[in-house]
Design a protein that fits this description.
Two copies of one chain form a homodimer. By secondary structure, chain A is an all-beta fold. Chain A has a domain at about 35-140: Jelly Rolls (Sandwich), CATH 2.60.120. The first copy, chain A, contains no helices and 14 strands. The first copy, chain A, has strands at about 20-25, 25, 30, 35-40, 45-55, 65-75, 80, 85-90, 95-100, 100-105, 110-115, 120-125, 130-135, 145. In chain A, strand 4 (about 35-40) and strand 5 (about 45-55) form a beta hairpin. In chain A, about 40% of the residues are buried. Residues about 1-5 and about 150-155 of chain A have low confidence and may be disordered. Chains A and B meet through strand 1, strand 8, strand 10, strand 11 and strand 13 of A and strand 1, strand 8, strand 10, strand 11 and strand 13 of B. Strand 11 of chain A pairs antiparallel with strand 1 (about 20-25) of chain B, so a sheet runs across the interface.
Chain lengths: ~160, ~160
Amino acid sequence: MKLVEDLTNDPAGLSGANISKFFQHLGNFDWNHIKATRYKDEEGSWKGVSRRVFTGETGESPQFHVRYFEIDKDGYSTLEHHQHEHVVVVMRGQGHAIVGERRLELKFGDVLYVAPNEIHQFSNGKEEPFGFLCIVNADRDRPVPVELGAESSCR
Amino acid sequence: MKLVEDLTNDPAGLSGANISKFFQHLGNFDWNHIKATRYKDEEGSWKGVSRRVFTGETGESPQFHVRYFEIDKDGYSTLEHHQHEHVVVVMRGQGHAIVGERRLELKFGDVLYVAPNEIHQFSNGKEEPFGFLCIVNADRDRPVPVELGAESSCR
């Protein structure tokens, strides 16, 4: 039996093949072969959020995508709703979620299921980045932002 | 805006309704409203593995299920294959995965994608439990165990 530390030493693993892949955590919430990208192209509704995609954009076949989002100090995601569900698992730091009319404190290991069409937003008021996995259906609708007004006080 | 710490204070959240749910991490990899169950009914092919299901068995609608598995010292999951994919994210301790002909060391934050039909097994040789999220399609085939023989030396 061959022993390797990283299945993705095979460059085919990075070029869109549906083969097993290993994304090693290098520490400090950085991963081998995974690049942080912008949360969204459009500005204005969010601040200080990055996005990493582990599964879903490089040839994998599951009916779900696994991503890691990180929110910097004083950052927040868009207040929005959509038909598709979120499952969030906190990996780093602490933050808040608005879900419908509720506001939750989130810390390591907490798991949140956001049901279809529920208005939601994530934010970080601490120094340390607030990082969480966010799992969604592969086939999903586009988010609809909520106009800030009465809601802006909830952040 | 109402502030609550736990969406599942609403008992409807536990009775199979497709509403938002919050599973608070109580520490030591135990969660509010989540019970550990047996990994599999059948004995023999595995040892010391427990299973917790966050999403998929209580009325949620996504096309995926989110579970947490924990393997005790010297425990191991079944050496098996199936058509459906796994995405594994390590939350606790350290362990090993056999994936095809490879053997990987896994620790906190590592992410592993197991492609369709790849033979795989997880094991723990340390004192601390080895715990990981395992995300799968909601609609999936049954695992096929691999008879131990030549492979048994790989554990």
